[in-house]
Amino acid sequence: MAATDRDSFTLVITGAPYASQAPQTALAFARAALEAGHRIDRVFLYGDGVHLASALSTPPSDETHWPREWASFLQTQEIPGIVCIASALRRGLVDESEQRRYELASHNLLSPFQIAGLGEWVEGRIKSTRTLYFHGGN
């Protein structure tokens, strides 16, 4: 099936930044897709990919800060960045609501990412003409 100007994508990232190339490859694809006139409906982080939404990530100053790169891209392009709640909680990533729910000392979700359930992934599969997965190298 040839791509058309009306193609839209849901991107699913399962590889962690600094442990795989998945976030970098997905961002390069997203930028190219938009430049070619396509649409990104949402980005869904699952498994270790949720580390991309951590506000506590602090890479060395001479390395690209992939969480900030993604946050800036999503905000500028007004694309929803969804973090799987089950994957996030298992990996210690929480927003203010989950912080209160579990009576935790703080929250660490980077804006504009939002925590949600797998229903967001399903909705993306339905709404988008294509769903692409960017996995870690394991």
UniProtKB/TrEMBL annotation:
Q: Which InterPro entries match?
A: DsrEFH-like (IPR027396), Sulphur_relay_DsrE/F-like (IPR003787), Sulphur_relay_TusD/DsrE (IPR017463)
State the superkingdom: Bacteria
| Record-linked SUPFAM superfamilies | DsrEFH-like
Organism of this sequence: Marinobacter gudaonensis
Query: What's this protein's name?
Result: tRNA 2-thiouridine synthesizing protein D
Report the subcellular localization.
Answer: Cytoplasm
Alphabetical GO CC annotations of the entry are: sulfurtransferase complex
Key words, A-Z = Cytoplasm, Transferase
The GO terms this record gives for MF are: sulfur carrier activity; sulfurtransferase activity
Q: Which family does it belong to?
A: Belongs to the DsrE/TusD family.
Q: Does the keyword Phosphoprotein apply?
A: no
Q: Does the keyword Transport apply?
A: no
One BP term from GO: tRNA wobble position uridine thiolation
What PANTHER family does the database record attribute to this sequence?
PROTEIN YCHN (PTHR34874), SULFURTRANSFERASE TUSD (PTHR34874:SF3)
